[in-house]
Design goal:
The structure is a single chain. With 260 residues, this protein is an alpha+beta fold. The protein has helices spanning 31-38, 76-88, 153-161, 200-213, and strands at residues 2-10, 13-19, 48-53, 60-66, 95-100, 103-109, 114-119, 125-127, 132-135, 139-144, 172-179, 182-189, 194-196, 218-225, 228-236, 241-249, 251-259. Helix 2 links the parallel strand 4 (60-66) and strand 5 (95-100). The radius of gyration is 17 Å and the shape is globular. 17% of the residues lie in helices and 44% in strands. The protein is built from four helices and 17 strands. The chain has two domains: 2-119 and 250-259, Diaminopimelate Epimerase, Chain A, domain 1, CATH 3.10.310; 125-246, Diaminopimelate Epimerase, Chain A, domain 1. It has a 17-stranded mixed β-sheet that branches. The model has no long low-confidence stretch (mean pLDDT 97).
C-alpha cells in the first residue's frame, strides 16, 4: 500500500501528516510502522506523526503519535502544523477549531505561514525550590538556569525524565534562560527521547513559569528556541492562566508517497 503524506515543520519541530478524511491508512495499533516512518535516516524522519480525521462538529480531529510510535498527548507545534496542512487542504479557513487528545482548541491561520493555537486554561502548577511542573496539554518540568551553553541537555534531561518520580509516565524537560526581551528554551522530549529543536507545549509551560517568577498578570512573551522564535500570550488572575495562545510559523517542507 502506498501512503501519501505531508512533511511540515514548526520552528524545527518536524512532523509527518497523513490525511485520513477519505481513506484510513494508519491506526493506533500500527506502532511499529509509525516508528519506522519517523525514524531519521531510515524513514521519512520526524519528531512525530499526525492523522487528520473528520470531526462531527469541528474542522478536523488530530491524532498525534510520538516518534516511538505510541499515541501521545497534545503537541503544540504539531497542532500548528496540522492547522496549516488543513488550510492547504481547504478544510480550515482563517479561524476555526479542532479536536485533540485533551479537548477542543481554537486556532487562527495567518498569511505568510503563521499559525496560532489556543491552549486550555491552567490552574494546577507545582512550584518547587528550583522547578515548576505543569500540564499545557502535555506534562512539563521547567527549570531556570544561568547559562544554557553550560548544559548537556540530553544528559540533564534524561536524568529528570527517568528519575523515580517520572520514569513510568515520562515528562518533557525544559531548561530556560531568561533574557532582557524574553526567554530561551531548550527541551528534552519524552517519546523522542532526545533534545528537539523546539517544543510548543514546552515553550508555553516555560513562558507561564516565567510569568509566575515575575508576578506577571498578562503578557506576550518572546521565546527563542534552536529552531526559531515563538510567542506565548496569556492572562493570569492569580489562580488561572487563561487566553493562552501559542503563536509562530508552520511550514510545508514537502509532500510525497511511500510504500508501507
Amino acid at each position: 500500500m502506498k501512503l501519501p503524506f505531508y512533511k511540515y515543520q514548526g520552528t524545527g519541530n518536524d512532523f509527518i501528516i497523513v490525511d485520513q478524511f477519505e481513506n484510513t491508512y494508519l491506526q493506533a495499533s500500527d506502532q511499529t510502522t509509525i516508528k519506522s516512518l519517523c525514524q531519521q535516516k531510515f524513514g521519512i524522519g520526524a519528531d512525530g506523526l499526525m492523522l487528520l480525521e473528520p470531526s462531527s462538529k469541528w474542522n478536523f480531529r488530530m491524532v498525534y503519535f510520538n516518534a516511538d510510535g505510541k499515541e501521545g498527548s497534545l503537541c503544540g507545534n504539531g497542532s500548528r502544523c496540522a492547522v496549516a496542512c488543513s488550510h492547504q487542504l481547504a478544510r480550515f479557513g482563517n479561524e476555526g477549531s479542532f479536536e485533540a487528545s485533551d479537548g477542543v482548541h481554537q486556532a487562527r491561520w495567518h498569511p505568510h505561514g503563521q499559525v496560532d493555537i489556543k491552549i486550555s486554561d491552567i490552574n494546577e502548577i507545582e512550584q518547587g525550590k528550583d522547578f515548576f511542573v505543569l500540564n499545557t496539554g502535555s506534562p512539563h518540568y521547567v527549570t531556570f538556569v544561568e547559562d544554557l551553553s553550560d548544559l548537556d541537555i540530553v544528559q540533564s534531561g534524561r536524568a529528570i525524565r527517568y528519575s523515580s518520580r517520572f520514569a513510568d509516565e515520562g515528562i518533557n524537560v525544559n531548561f530556560v534562560e531568561e533574557m532582557n526581551n524574553g526567554v530561551e528554551v531548550y527541551t528534552y522530549e519524552r517519546g523522542v527521547e532526545d533534545e528537539t529543536l523546539s517544543c510548543g507545549t514546552g515553550v508555553t509551560a516555560s513562558a507561564l513559569a516565567h510569568a509566575l517568577r515575575h508576578n506577571l498578570t498578562s503578557g506576550s512573551i518572546q521565546i527563542k528556541t534552536k529552531g526559531g522564535n515563538l510567542i506565548v500570550k496569556f492572562d493570569y488572575d492569580g489562580d488561572y492562566f487563561t487566553n493562552i495562545w501559542l503563536c509562530g510559523p508552520a511550514t510545508l517542507v514537502f509532500k510525497g508517497e511511500i510504500d508501507l
